[in-house]
């Protein structure tokens, strides 16, 4: 995740001078702000302006990036890979619930339904081949309680 950091004073004077800063280079928001203030030490009291952002939507505002560090801490704590965590965030799952709601990555709803039923021990041993059951229909029913984003499946009642 990166942000283009400038100041309101520079912007108001017609200057777009700033710098792209990698937010993951800092362990917390305070360290990031200290770096940005030093970056714009040519002003006595720089009012930071974040003019552009590369990362998950919803974390960025023109004057505040503190949510980025909440996101990064929750991602680190979750144990999930960044793509899975981002998928949960995109679905609107609270940061502290994403890991608990996560059920894995699958190629299709039908594959998810089959694996879910198999993990719960709901498929009798004598059901073979796999296509004896209409897994597309099972998936349609199951998806009332689950959500999918980019192949990642989450329980929707977190």
What would you call the shape?
elongated
Which percent band covers the strand fraction? 15-25%
- SS summary, helix count: 7
Total domain count: 2
Helix content: 25-40%
The CA-CA distance between the termini, in Å, is 27 Å
- Radius of gyration, whole Å: 22 Å
Mean pLDDT: 92
Along the chain, the helix and strand elements come as EHEHEHHHEHHEE
Number of strands: 6
Word description of this protein:
The mean pLDDT is 92. The protein has helices at 8-12, 29-39, 66-78, 82-90, 98-101, 109-119, 135-142; strands at 2-7, 19-22, 48-54, 102-105, 146-149, 152-155. It has seven helices and six strands. By secondary structure, it is α+β, with helices and mostly antiparallel strands. The two termini are 27 Å apart. The protein folds into two domains: 2-78, no CATH class; 100-155. The protein is elongated and about 75 Å long. α6 crosses α7. The strands form two sheets. A three-stranded antiparallel sheet has the order 2-1-3. Strands 4-6-5 form a three-stranded antiparallel sheet.
Q: What is the fold's blueprint, element by element?
A:
Layout: E1 2-7, H1 8-12, E2 19-22, H2 29-39, E3 48-54, H3 66-78, H4 82-90, H5 98-101, E4 102-105, H6 109-119, H7 135-142, E5 146-149, E6 152-155
Antiparallel strand pairs: 1-2, 1-3, 4-6, 5-6
Q: Which properties best describe this structure?
A:
alpha+beta, 39% helix, three-stranded antiparallel beta sheet, 6 strands, 158 residues
